[in-house]
Amino acid sequence: MELRQLAYFVAVCEELSFSKAASRCFISQSAISHQIARLERDLGVSLFERTTRAVIPTDATTRLLPLAKQMLSLESAIRATVRTTGPRIRLAANMSFATRSLSAIAGTRAAHPDAEIEYVIKPFRQRITAVADGDCDLALIRGSVDQPGLAVEQLWVEDLVIATSSGHPLATRDTVTLADLSPYPLLLPPEQEQVLLHNIIRAAFAELPTGPTYGPPIPPDHTATMELLNRPDAWTVLYAESPTEGLVVLRLTEHRLRIPVSAVVRSDARPSSILSTLLTNLHR
């Protein structure tokens, strides 16, 4: 059994998709399937029931998952403990924050020439864990998090954008209203995967006499682009920095769909002039 196999196992459990877990771990789907199969042989159990439409955890998976997460958390703690001390900051984020983050990092390095600032790509849950375990000093997230030992500081607010296929009846408009969109099916991931996005949608439509018309949830192994191409009458909501290749992006006249971007740090973190400068630059 290897730690990387446990990391792949946790990714499949959380994504319930070998393809999405492979993308998250930056390896091929065949490679992650091979490593999971090796883990199953080492343990002598089946961890997932695989069908053409779903990946279903077994009872053994339910028992193994918390222990696997504990092992990975210990690995992060070990790395943080032996890490060379010095003027170094590790910033955990995803690629959608890259442009603004790299600009802030450049400004921080100009003020602190000896500082080393790492930009680490991690999924949402791993970002939070990395800060809690001390493996990273700062994480950028959309929304907020309520977890003991962590502090959250709002940095800026993003306007969400509306996306449709080019064949949608509203696609020729530059701007639309929520009332315009209400009759057309709204495609979103399942609520358990995007709680914040669903809450924002509900809050925005609460002021209108009619709510959104929900279409079928976007399956975990599908993309919004493909679903909209298959449903030219539908629409979805994207983060402003999300890839929109093949889609038409519409702006809301009301600017009601907004989402905060926050920094997550440890509550007991020692004062750092480098981290303070980086946060100031991110605010800008």
TrEMBL record:
<dbReference type="InterPro" id="IPR036390">
    <property type="entry name" value="WH_DNA-bd_sf"/>
</dbReference>
<keyword id="KW-0010">Activator</keyword>
<dbReference type="Pfam" id="PF00126">
    <property type="entry name" value="HTH_1"/>
</dbReference>
<protein>
    <submittedName>
        <fullName>DNA-binding transcriptional LysR family regulator</fullName>
    </submittedName>
</protein>
<comment type="similarity">
    <text>Belongs to the LysR transcriptional regulatory family.</text>
</comment>
<dbReference type="Pfam" id="PF03466">
    <property type="entry name" value="LysR_substrate"/>
</dbReference>
<keyword id="KW-0805">Transcription regulation</keyword>
<feature type="domain" description="HTH lysR-type">
    <location>
        <begin position="1"/>
        <end position="58"/>
    </location>
</feature>
<keyword id="KW-0238">DNA-binding</keyword>
<dbReference type="InterPro" id="IPR000847">
    <property type="entry name" value="LysR_HTH_N"/>
</dbReference>
<dbReference type="InterPro" id="IPR005119">
    <property type="entry name" value="LysR_subst-bd"/>
</dbReference>
<dbReference type="InterPro" id="IPR036388">
    <property type="entry name" value="WH-like_DNA-bd_sf"/>
</dbReference>
<dbReference type="GO" id="GO:0003677">
    <property type="term" value="F:DNA binding"/>
</dbReference>
<keyword id="KW-0804">Transcription</keyword>
